[in-house]
Every structure is written in C-alpha cells, then in structure tokens.
User: Which sequence fits this backbone?
C-alpha cells in the first residue's frame, strides 16, 4: 500500500511516551490504527443515525416528500431548459 507523509505536532512528553510504550519505528503504524478505528466508528454512527431517522414513520414521510419535490424540481428544470434551447 502506498504511504503518504503527514506532519503533526504533539507535546514532547507525549512523543517520549509513544517512543517508550510503542517503540521507535512503530509510532506511525500505531497512530494509523487509532485513526482508522475512529473513522470506522464515525461511519457506524452515521449509519446508525440514518437507521434511527428512517425508523420513524413521520421522518420517512417527510423524506419522501422532499425526494418527490426534488425530482419534480429537476424535471421542471429540464423541461424549461429544453424549451429555451428551441
């Protein structure tokens, strides 16, 4: 896998603790694993929030109304665009 350099600033104490606990040459791998876990948990949170939102019948009804309005708006735009082109 291709890697990208990233420069971050941390306290000297934190750096020394990382070197002591994780070991020199393994800090990047350690930080990457923590970031990946956090990003994954964020994705799961968003998925859960969508599930909760759409489990409410009122929210589902409103979402469908917005979807219909969006489609109608787009169809009207296309219809008017084609009229102007003629």
Assistant:
């Amino acid at each position: 896998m291709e890697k990208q350099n990233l420069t971050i600033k941390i306290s000297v104490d934190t750096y020394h603790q990382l070197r002591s606990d994780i070991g020199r040459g393994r800090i990047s791998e350690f930080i990457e694993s923590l970031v990946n876990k956090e990003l994954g948990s964020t994705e799961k949170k968003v998925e859960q929030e969508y599930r909760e939102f759409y489990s409410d019948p009122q929210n589902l009804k409103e979402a469908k109304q917005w979807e219909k309005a969006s489609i109608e708006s787009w169809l009207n735009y296309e219809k008017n665009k084609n009229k102007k082109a003629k």
